[in-house]
Amino acid sequence: MLKRLIPTLLILALCTALRADDAVVSRFHATLDNYYEEYLALFPVEAAVNGDNDHRYEAVWPNDIGAEHRAQVAALCEKYLGTLAKYDRAALSTTDQLSYDMLRWNLTLRREGLRQSLHLLPVNQFNCPTLVFAQMGSGTSAHPFNTAQDFRNFLSRARGFSVWVDTAIANMQEGVAKGVVPPRILMERVLPQLEPLMADDEAKNIFFGPLQKLPADLSAADKDKLAADYRAGLRGIVLPAYARLHAFIRDEYLPHCRDTAGVGALPGGKELYAYCVRLQTTTALTPEQIHELGLHEVARIRGEMEKVQAQVGFKGTLNDFLKFVATDPQFTPFKSEEEVLNGYRAIEVRVMANIPKFFGRVPRTKFEIRATEAFRAAAASAEYSAGAADGTRPGIFYVPIVDARKFTTPRMEDLFLHEAIPGHHFQISLALENTGLPRFRRCDASNAYVEGWALYTESLGRELGVYADPYQYLGMLFGDMHRAVRLVVDTGLHAKGWTREQALAYGAENEGGTPDKQQAEIERYMAWPGQALGYKIGQLKIRELRTRGEQQLGARFDLRGFHDEILREGAMPLAVLEAHIRAWLDQPAGH
Questions:
Q1: Are residues 523 and 379 in the same domain?
Q2: Domain range spanning residue 200?
Q3: CA 199 – CA 308 distance, rounded (Å)
Q4: Who is most buried in 100, 173, 239, 454, counting CB within 10 A?
Q5: Do residues 365 and 388 lie in contact, with contact meaning Cβ atoms separated by under 8 Å?
Q6: End-to-end CA distance of the chain
Q7: How confident is the model at residue 50 (pLDDT cuts 50, 70, 90)?
Q8: Is residue 561 part of a domain?
């Protein structure tokens, strides 16, 4: 009797344990879902950008630099760091362990960011809510203008934005008192950006653009009322907010702004930049290590360029060669926009023919190549716009073509690999399509991973059937050099006390051209410390992991499986990615 009871008791105990494990998993997944809901409530603009059209977020603009909001974010971090600590990470599945690690990393860095002085530097010329809000208000961005309620929702956002502007002014006043101010030249760039946004000119101010797309299903009277209400809201809320900010910067703020270029010159600037580096690279690399890495990469890539110069038989200096490639008519063969697009379509055909050799998983999301709209082409770069996982919107590779006769060929192949296939289109689409991931991971945009993957894919050109033309390979080296220069210049500005002029000269020396051609890029780095580091650091980490796999597994290394594993779990901090891939490589053969 006892012998028969023992197996039964063991089975009952096992079933009880399994139910307990299931309960833990369910509770953990609920924690992740609850976190993301609370996060979106604090950052509703991200919900709009991610295509989350939840009505709770559609009419809100957060005052994310205000004391109350910052306290709420701090409370969110403490709450979920405490909740995570209650789970036994080792008892979770591999995917859940990654969710655990990613959330802990994100919360820890966000909490650390609240201790920095970035909220006292709320305005710049490159990455700023004043620009994001204007894009949303143009009618061509993340905020929809399809219904009357959409128009009312935007005016509700405008009231929140007006509060944000007043908080920004108060924060900048506090920054003046504490010596935490931006470079003067950046604020000089901001002023002309604000002027058209505060102008009461319906033909030129983009905020009036949505009035050209009033809902067709409204009666004439309702259209007139909606238009009148919308104009009144713009003139009563939006234009005055931009005017207040412009006047403050021009009259009160500019005299206190600094002549130095990097944040290292600020009180607490060394610690601030170290945080920015951790945030943007998601590694423990120091600014000094990154600077030396950049110098090494610049020298290496320069050597590769010289090899191409020798291969094609060009006589002269490397700078002479780069000037030749930039100006010779053979590199501008197109006569029409359609010819340029057809050139990219031909690249797509060649790349896709080789994709199955190197990728086992490809997106379901459709893909298109389009010319950038004429109204923004002159100021645009080649870019990728993510598709929708439900198939309602394709992923789009946008190509700015201002004058097809001046469109140059040498960077076409590497730009396609980076922005389209297998770069951003594969990585972003596979993450969005992966419903097995929690929502916060499907939309994660970890800079070093996302841009690092895209830059890594540029190096796959020869494997994917492109770069047969040495000038196309040179185009890849142009892009690689640009990202390597960033490592030197960003750390030079913010950690080594470089002047703006030193940075301009270094960029011109190593990328060709004159210092004035580097202006927008160098001032971008001044405005957004550390962000430009993510591309190269991410690329080098993925390449390092690939090399580790090749050396560790030898003939058993499966490059296709490696690429699939890099992409399988979506974007993640590089420190988390490295631990995950190392564990994957250590698994028994056949994984």
A1: yes
A2: 122-259
A3: 51
A4: 454
A5: yes
A6: 45
A7: confident
A8: no
